[in-house]
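#structure-requests
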Amino acid sequence: MKNILFVSHSSELNGAELWLVESLKRLDKHKYAPFLIVPRPGPLEKTAKDLGLETRVVPMKWSLTEKSKIWRQPFAWLWNIHSVRRLANIIREKKIGLVFTNSAAMSGGAKAAKRMGVPHVWAIHEVLGGKNPFLYYMFGSKPLVNFILKRSAKVIVNSEICRAAFPDSDKLALIYNGVEIKSGDENRQNAIRKELGIREGDLVAGVVGKIYEGKGQREVILAVAALSRQYPNLKLLVVGEVRDAAYYRGLQDVAKANGLEGRILFVGYHPDLVNILKIMNILIAASVVESFGRAALEGMAAGVPVLAVRAGGLPEIVEHGRNGFLVDSRDPQEIARAMNFIFQSPAKAKEAVEGGFKAVREKFSLDQQVRGIERVIDETLG
């Protein structure tokens, strides 16, 4: 049995963290003994402990930032020196055979692995190149991806758009995110409808993700506004915690300015995502910052017609007319036209739902995700 140290960049439960915890839950425990590091207490730490996974908090700061905060990076690197030393001590204490870092945001795991002479695997969930990378390195994307490759025996990418930032290398392994198809609970769905004030006969659209500009909630609200007269029973669920408070206030102002009070419902983070998805008639993925687009995949697994913007990794998930629908931009009028088409084409929507189930089973299953990770670990360990 090999002891493996998994280092998470956060203690939240967003896409990258869910990818990690679902993998840890299903790894072959006869072959691997996982040990999890989180940078602070939070939902991921609690979930991991509930699963019986040994977990420890080692405070760390992100090595990469948004473009406007690049000036912070040298301070974070200095601050993390102590964190790397603590990680090295844990590698020694736990007789770790491999370090696995989840996300490009933190480099402490890679540095500690090098210090202790153990192999390192890096799972990248971010677009690091192109015109609009999700995270920035103050010396540029090319030195960043070269650093990642140099400090890793294997690098996992979750989409072709994620891989595009890297030069050709036999270290790269493409492993798509996976999800489960779950039946849901009708009683719970009825309770959610009552809680949110959704009446029988209402049309429910939804957008899922942290609330900030890159996720496109504003454009979806404006699309709903464009359809508000044609569909007076249309409501929009904005599901996700607030990352940008000013942007969130702006969304509330847009809803009010368009007379949509009571029809734009800000749900916040919701722990029962499966059942909240199942009350939707359509899920809209308008993000332009996704390396993958987990929300779209979760919509497919929940049996919801998915409308996505042709950006980032979303076109690798959504095939127009087969398992969902694509628009070329997140222009509100274009989104509104596509929404109207889906509402008016129940046979096409049903076909997309069936195609979504098929895609999840055949291409985006959790079993495929976990087997891919185990294959990378085995290859790294020889």
